[in-house]
Write a structure and sequence with these properties.
This protein has 210 residues and is α+β, with helices and mostly antiparallel strands. The chain has one domain. Helices cover 37% and strands 10% of the residues. It contains 5 helices and 4 strands; from the N terminus they run H-H-E-H-H-E-E-H-E. Strands 1-2-3-4 form a 4-stranded antiparallel beta sheet. A hairpin with a 2-residue loop joins strand 2 and strand 3. It is elongated, with a radius of gyration of 25 Å. The chain starts with a helix and ends with a strand.
């Protein structure tokens, strides 16, 4: 009993304190990793939800206008970047004139869907806040995945296809498969190289609108 009392008076040894600190550090790292993974999963769930809503809106738009926001829609990227050719509904989903200029993006694709009353009002922007490939957190050309949404109408083996794309943090990249979704040079406003959604933008998730 006396030895225990003396032990309490003397306090912890350096070794004991070091062990406690090490254990706390391990626990903290486990909590941080778990929290980071949770946030990543939550962002991916939001991305899937956003893209599903846009895909449903595009389908409703197609039932009404017999196209998925395409030729001469005035939405998305202008095919020559100068305003002389109407935008054909491809490119970054939410980028508009305030982001990239009226000659390059006269109206956003999301805005066109909302104007047509087939998509509810809202931002529909990636959870990171990115609208387009602007470097840094949004990604960079042919490098870091662009955490922003895209849309493309093209042909594959002679058949018209329309897709919406996103980058999921919890899914591995599959650049070759994503690149091959469209035949070369079949996306208005994009070169054959530019339409490599996987290689250049890091898109690894898509929904086909049918």
């Amino acid at each position: 009993m006396t030895q225990t009392f003396k032990r309490l008076q003397q306090g912890f040894t350096v070794i004991e304190i070091a062990v406690v600190v090490a254990v706390l550090a391990v626990l903290a790292s486990i909590i941080l990793v778990s929290y980071s993974s949770y946030r990543e999963d939550a962002r991916d769930v939001q991305r899937k939800s956003d893209l599903q809503q846009v895909a449903s809106a595009l389908k409703a738009y197609g039932n009404w206008k017999n196209n998925f926001v395409e030729t001469d829609s005035g939405c998305g990227v202008d095919s020559d970047g100068g305003g002389s050719s109407p935008a054909d509904g491809n490119g970054w989903l939410t980028a508009g004139p305030s982001d990239l200029g009226a000659t390059l993006y006269p109206r956003s694709i999301v805005q066109c869907l909302q104007d047509a009353k087939v998509l509810k009002e809202g931002d529909f922007i990636d959870p990171t806040g990115c609208k387009w490939d602007s470097g840094g957190i949004c990604g960079s050309w042919n490098g870091i995945p662009a955490k922003a949404y895209m849309k493309a109408t093209c042909t594959k083996s002679g058949v018209k296809k329309t897709y919406v794309f996103g980058h999921l943090e919890g899914v591995a990249r599959s650049d070759a498969a994503i690149d091959a979704l469209c035949d070369a040079n079949t996306v208005s406003g994009f070169t054959s190289d530019g339409q490599k959604w996987g290689t250049h933008y890091g898109m690894n998730y898509y929904i086909e609108i049918q």
